[in-house]
């Protein structure tokens, strides 16, 4: 049985329906094409075009001005009261995930929305060329990674503590659900050879990946230096079931961006599939990791 959709999933569902209603509503003026611009939709409301865009993208809901939702639905020509109540209920249940609130101050732009999306996924496909993929990291590895970056990023001990806690909580919510999320990960060889922390940290990290690789919900592969195509940047593809898939990337400023544009999702899916074809298989990956652990 599929897991009950969380707050982010409900916001996504609400936003998707609102966008479709806006783009397909009857024209305001005779002779015009169907649909309404965001500017026309928000006229007279305590809502900006940017806010409506974020609502349609599933990042916000009408928490502060729920009456604006009913006004928009009326402007979109929605007369079915059962549909109105369904969308109002989606809005009511789409409040921010409370557990994330305590971490928002230490997360980069876009990260809270992505973390919410991550927990809604049916399948996660992730790649990282130079560090162990976040959801596979041990607590010690994650802490050592933040410590290495500390001098450059000018972060505090509290910042590191909170981020490590967040990473472990994300891991728990993804892997320990009643219906665990299927997870496919490709790690560049450099991600496993670049030392983070001391030998014990790396050895425990190798053993953690081996343990996960042997579980049915995981597919973990190593992409050796000698292989063919590889992507130069890390990314994650989230299969959200009946909702549009999303691709996530980080930019040079540390912000997290996601896109549900089919062209972008297809582009990164092709990249991932190309690397699956040249990466080590399951048993070869485990053998590779066991050899690193012995060293």
What does this structure look like?
The chain has helices spanning 7-24, 38-41, 49-56, 67-75, 81-93, 98-101, 111-120, 139-153, 157-175, 189-193, 199-213, 262-278, 282-294, and strands spanning 123-128, 182-188, 218-223, 235-239, 246-250, 256-259. The chain has 295 residues and is an alpha/beta fold. It has two domains: 7-96, 434 Repressor (Amino-terminal Domain); 101-294, Endonuclease, Chain A (2-Layer Sandwich), CATH 3.30.870. The chain has a six-stranded mixed sheet, sandwiched between helices. The radius of gyration is 22 Å and the shape is elongated.
Question: What's a quick, concise take on this entry?
Answer:
This protein is of the alpha/beta class and 295 residues long. The chain is built from 13 helices and six strands.
